[in-house]
Amino acid sequence: MTLRVLAAMSGGVDSAVAAARAAEAGHDVTGVHLALSKNPQSYRTGARGCCTAEDSRDARRAADVIGLPFYVWDMAEEFDRDVVQDFVSEYAAGRTPNPCLRCNEKIKFEAVLDRAIALGFDAVCTGHHVRKTDGRLRRSVDADKDQSYVLGVLDREQVAHAMFPLGDCTKDEVRAEADRRGLAVADKPDSHDICFIADGDTAGFLNGRLGDEPGPIKDEAGEVLGTHQGAHSFTVGQRKGLNLGGAAKRRYVLSIEPVENTVTVGPRESLQVDEITAERPVWSGGEPFADPTACTVQLRAHGEVYGCTAVQRDGELLIRLDEPATGVAAGQAAVLYDGDIVLGSGTIGATSRSGEPAPTG
After folding, report:
1. Which domain holds residue 347?
2. Per-residue pLDDT tens digits for 331-358
3. Which end of the chain is more exposed for a tag (fewer CB within 10 A), N or C?
4. What is the largest distance, in Å, between two alpha-carbon atoms of the chain?
5. What are phi and psi of 266, to 5 degrees?
6. Where in the cell is it found (predicted)?
7. Is 103 a catalytic residue?
């Protein structure tokens, strides 16, 4: 069946090959690049493959080679509101957001998909490394590049209108194919930085938005060990940058209290948690768990996968890990899996250590 497909072309090699594959499959494909910055000079440069000043030109050249009509959509207002401002407000609240995850949720698969459907397109195609079978997301065959975690926030309707042509191949195979197709982005480096923080200095960016606000760094007993210039500069599990001298040995950030502007530190073992409460659950690959159900969970991008028992109650996702995890930060996503199939997700709101065995169904 021929579909009208909108291919989101970031300017990187993955989205270019994905668009080429969709066209080769016989679909009616249109390329679109998302202009995300009101002031492009304020965003990162250097041809990294996501949101840079060079990327629009790279995307246009790739579309020309493939033979696609190509447009640039101005999404700067939506990106600033739903990604940049969300990033700042989450840090101000003592949480640790994932801006790429939020961009996928709010921009690529909400704002863009809504506009695409309104214009008569059947699907949005992206270069994410993830598979879709029987309407459900599955991990990529390339475990090192798997992006199912950052797409775990999508709902069932969004997944239904998404196309992911790259989930069945490795990144090396994608680059080789781009070279065979004559795409100049074949050797373009991957993007790993936050696109709207040009110099990579997250603490400096947040200080510029939230200002310096000195406060205490305390241990678990409440003893003041030092001071900081803003609790928003820290994240749970962080060890570097505490500037506590000898007192910093084997101490990690355990919690951040934005109201009191306090950072609490302690030994690594105090980071261990086995109970997680996640807010705003979304189920794209299964029905909500009415009873405690065994599955697995991933708690951060490219992070370890844990066995767990999960249940949805009163609009929250309650997760009990089979083994304790460390460095679990509020604001990150908890994505549930059945094997390699994404079941659903929630945003981590609270964690604790019970010390008790996980419940069974």
Report:
1. 272-352
2. 999 999 999 999 999 999 999 988 654 4
3. N
4. 67
5. -175, -175
6. Cytoplasm
7. yes
Which is the catalytic residue, given 50, 103, 295, 308?
A: 103
Tell whether 179 and 241 lie within a shared domain. no
CATH of the domain at 308: 2.40.30.10
CATH number at residue 257: 2.30.30.280
Residue 51 CA, distance from chain mean position: 15
- Name the binding residues for ATP: 8-15, 34, 127
Q: Read off the pTM.
A: 0.90
Tokens of residue 226, six digits: 């030092």
Using DSSP's 3-state secondary structure scheme, residue 331 falls into coil
Residue numbering of the annotated binding site = 8-15, 34, 127
Of 50, 51, 195, 295, the active-site residue reads 195
Does the active-site annotation cover 100? Answer: no
Helix (H, G, I), strand (E, B) or coil at 316: strand
Among 316, 45, 313, 332, residue whose Cα is nearest residue 193 = 45
Same domain, residue pair 40 and 120: yes
Residue 148 included in any domain: yes
